[in-house]
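Researcher: Next sequence.
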Amino acid sequence: MPFRASLKPVLAHRTQTLCLAAAVLAVSAPLLRPTNAHATSCADLARQALPDTTFTTVQTVEAGQWQAPQTQLTRIMSAPGMNVAGKPTRGSTPAFCRVAATLHPSSDSAIRIEVWMPLKGWNGRFLGVGNFGWAGSLMYQGMETGVSEGYAVASTDTGHDSSTPEGQGGRFTLGHPEKMVDYAYRADHLMTTTAKTLIHSFYGQNASHAYWIGCSLGGLEGLIEAKRFPDAEISQKGCTSG
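Model: Next structure:
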């Protein structure tokens, strides 16, 4: 496959510590005012026929009712200074449409993604939330902050589950070249394109801006997405990590 030749340098750069505060991956329309209009209901999104996509959860989460699964990542992301909006504490989430799905771009792929869309006050923008380390889990805390700020948000586990022994470190890539491709870039890109499709279906319009936010691996994910898919206008802000 044509992308295999570029995997080695991409994966080599995974060891670098990068921090990307925000990368604008697409600017396609004028800035929109907050909207409460919905082109379709949250439940109806499950009826969409998207290629290589299996919906696992499509639900309306009422304001203040979201409870993230408690994991080691949850404890890390709840530490002071880890809020992606720079806030000292996490507030309760507003009501949002939650769509969880598993993507199967290859016979050996199982990429989990979630897309959250505010029921009221959407700011017209999309925010992709990057991962840490070898990934393997959804970045719920970053999603909580993003949706609370009015963004439609998305996250992915990059195609493996770090809560299992075989999903920790880089073990998941051994004998699984397609999972390596998913981790290298495919999961992030398909998460983004799927999220944009669902956003358009739900609100009846495209997001005016698309952002990526993350540190360490998350910053690198944003840079790889921008490099591999440079057909949109791109600007970015960066920071360094010690």
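Model: The chain has five helices and eight strands. The two ends are 37 Å apart (CA to CA).
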